[in-house]
Hints:
The structure holds two protein chains of two kinds.
Chain A: H1 5-58, H2 60-79, H3 88-102, E1 106-120, E2 127-140, H4 143-156, E3 160-170, E4 184-197
Chain B: E1 4-9, E2 13-20, E3 23-31, H1 34-46, E4 51-56, E5 61-69, H2 73-87, E6 94-101, E7 109-117, H3 124-132, E8 136-142, H4 143-153, E9 160-167, E10 170-177, E11 180-187, H5 194-215, E12 225-231, H6 236-242, E13 249-255, H7 256-262, H8 275-284, H9 298-357, H10 366-381, H11 387-397, E14 403-414, H12 415-421, E15 440-450, H13 458-472, E16 478-483, E17 508-516
Parallel strand pairs in B: 1-4, 4-8, 9-12, 12-13
Antiparallel strand pairs in B: 1-2, 2-3, 5-7, 6-7, 9-10, 10-11, 14-15, 15-17, 16-17
Helix pairs in contact in B: 1-3, 4-8
Amino acid sequence: xxxxxxxxxxxxxxxxxxxxxxxxxxxxxxxxxxxxxxxxxxxxxxxxxxxxxxxxxxxxxxxxxxxxxxxxxxxxxxxxxxxxxxxxxxxxxxxxxxxxxxxxxxxxxxxxxxxxxxxxxxxxxxxxxxxxxxxxxxxxxxxxxxxxxxxxxxxxxxxxxxxxxxxxxxxxxxxxxxxxxxxxxxxxxxxxxxxxxxxxxx
Amino acid sequence: xxxxxxxxxxxxxxxxxxxxxxxxxxxxxxxxxxxxxxxxxxxxxxxxxxxxxxxxxxxxxxxxxxxxxxxxxxxxxxxxxxxxxxxxxxxxxxxxxxxxxxxxxxxxxxxxxxxxxxxxxxxxxxxxxxxxxxxxxxxxxxxxxxxxxxxxxxxxxxxxxxxxxxxxxxxxxxxxxxxxxxxxxxxxxxxxxxxxxxxxxxxxxxxxxxxxxxxxxxxxxxxxxxxxxxxxxxxxxxxxxxxxxxxxxxxxxxxxxxxxxxxxxxxxxxxxxxxxxxxxxxxxxxxxxxxxxxxxxxxxxxxxxxxxxxxxxxxxxxxxxxxxxxxxxxxxxxxxxxxxxxxxxxxxxxxxxxxxxxxxxxxxxxxxxxxxxxxxxxxxxxxxxxxxxxxxxxxxxxxxxxxxxxxxxxxxxxxxxxxxxxxxxxxxxxxxxxxxxxxxxxxxxxxxxxxxxxxxxxxxxxxxxxxxxxxxxxxxxxxxxxxxxxxxxxxxxxxxxxxxxxxxxxxxxxxxxxxxxx
Lengths: 202, 518
């Protein structure tokens, strides 16, 4: 049956209605698909969170032991003033004190600008490790003087002293006379490391 | 369900009914003459449009059985139209009912029952009036065309059956074979008492059976024919007493009210007789076969197309909605599960917080405490003191009094980088120990001189430096590099000053050894 123009016009409205209905149906499917996708993503996130929390809870005994162990070290770092801001005056005092106590002949030092060594991700804030490199020139009677100087420096606190380089050479100066002549010369690079815990109270 | 109007056509008067699902209502009565047609036109003008069917209940309906080649589609239509044109002079109201495949023969044939009215003059003006009123004509049916549907409703699904009804037009008898109409006749009646009508039914049925036997439409042997007689209201008992069965005919008298229930008709006009059954079937379950031409039914076809398109849209929407609904159910299920997981996560976190609150008091969070200590330990492990290396050197030197040290360069660095810097071919592969080529290491470079040995004793000096280097490469230290007083490698330059005056300067060497840090 061939439809006339008039009859085709009569089919226009039903066609429009059918198109709208099917488009609405397609809209429902699309919306449902998007909703499902979002729900799946959300489910994956909360599932991972639940698993993580459950695992953390399961490890709580181990964590308690770990915290107890690490707390001693943390307290020690705090008491040695390694944890906290730099104390450059205390460093200068310590070097002077060691020089006098150990009767070192000549000690020259220079502390460079502080730089960030590393930043460890913590919660709620990071833990930053800073280093200030100190270059030290020492005139020594004996190599033991260097080792004592380094040991005294470490025990003086106010930073963690990480020796990066030490060059020991003979001075070549002749020994004799009433004055004490240095036989060795040492140049050392030492990182003075301090820790800033952004989450620490007080 | 759309309201449908049905024009019931008899030889005398025409009746217009409105069928609305389970109700049948008489809307008008028109005489069969010109006045009736005029009134009908006026009636249509007052109610334009609408859906119409015509049910003709007239005598003079012709039935003729034919056979055509077994065809399909347009070819079959063409053959059927040709046969109808050959059989009937006026083909406006004709139809062909398929009776199935012919039982035998050399080629496959289809049996057809061609049907029409011997005269269409009494119907044509009414159809023209419908056309002028732009109504949608669903079809033109005759009571016999609707009879198979009635027989099926009354419980006879197969076999041979005669259905006998008393309509306003007279006594209608239809012969149905395997659910297909084979023959029908209308015998006019006058008003009779129930007993007389029952007797008339009996005699006419026996006459029809005899006629069908003559035509060989009924076999002489075989099972008796079921005769369904719809008794007028209140006359069932009289009919049952009168209509006694025999070997050829088995009468079943059916109460009119029961028949109405079977066709799901609840309310009928009081004046209406058994034609109500056929009118209801024409409204609710019209058969595919009908008499109207395609042109007469064009508006109805377009209307069906409109409904079909909308129905397809609705079906599509419902399908999409069902599918989308399924998805949303899945979404809701996922949301429920996510909420449960979130609740469990929160409970675990709260429990964790409660337990950690009882931990030793710290000045920071547990996380930062751990991070600070772990990172500090890592740095401390990589920050050795020179003591150990110097002690090792001192112990080895004690065994080599002829060695005099000029300088020591202690450092922490990457042994691999140092090797790479000097890998211009000077060092032999043996001088590159795998372990020393790792990550951070304590690297000690010792430079010195060999005393108490003749400067010209190359072999002796070389052997002493080699032994000294080997001694240094112990206790966890490994040899990275050595520079002998005399370059005896093929890559170097060997020089000598034999016979010249001895300068007294001891031969110098350099040894580099390293210890990997954890």
